[in-house]
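We store amino acids, tokens; thus:
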Amino acid sequence: MPIPQATLGKIVLPPAQKRLEDFRQQDRVQAGSLIISVFGDAVLPRGSRIWLGSLIELLEPLGLNERLVRTSVFRLVKEEWLRTEPSGRRTDYLLTPSGQRRFEEASRHIYASSAPLWDRRWRLIVTVGELAPKEREGLRRALFWQGFGVLGGDCFVHPSADLTAAFDALHAEGLSGILGRLKPLLAADAQFGTAANDVDMVNGAWNLERLAGVYADFVDRYQPVLDQLRTDANNEIDDQSAFLLRILLIHDYRRLLLRDPELPDVLLPSDWPGQKARLLCKELYRRLLAPSERHLDAHFQLASGQTPPASRLIHERFREDDPLAELA
């Protein structure tokens, strides 16, 4: 349960509990976004469905009341993230095929242990016809969420994006009417000595300083939690707190990655804080995984009353060899 604000100011909480309490004390919680994180991280590995009552029980310790969860879930159904499936007098909520596809795509980025390699070619999407202001803004917004930067007003760039997937996403976003006015290109560096270089391209297309600040905030928020777990190896965190921290960790990291174009390391500063944030998220997630799964085994239910086991694939998250591990 949340600690009263007056009492909170008089006690010093361990970092793990402080992170949970900071979340509970927020004036406003974007519950829909948090629920999407829960579905992608905890529900997807258990068959992509959960009874609404079970979801309410799992989120209540974070300060989300039943009404807020119900309202947020109904909105996600309208937005076609979720769908319903009755089972007797109860109802399961499931990721829709498009919702599952979107999170599976996001998962490839969230749970990766290493930065993408680069083939030293740029992906360009150039407008070759007139766009109305509303169309241009819709295109800019849709490509921003796919990591594209902007050069001028008519050229969108990325070093490694899948152009086919980018166009498929534009179609899914309702922008199919402008696809005929967009030209996808692959560009190799001609390497003229006095021309702008790749780093100049990056600095022109993205605001890395702002993104670095967001990554630094993430590290500041979760490094004390990891330090606590490293120090208190013989005093394991309780299962419920491990689950709640795991959800907040992935929720914050997922929202951070939505802003990140995921540039290859060769295009980033040597002290780029995204590398430290990725390693931090990896180690903390692995430490929270076992106790959080015990909590789900005890409290996760379908409308039928069954508790489906987690897929063994969940233990493959963050498991690849990480070339940055030596930097931790």
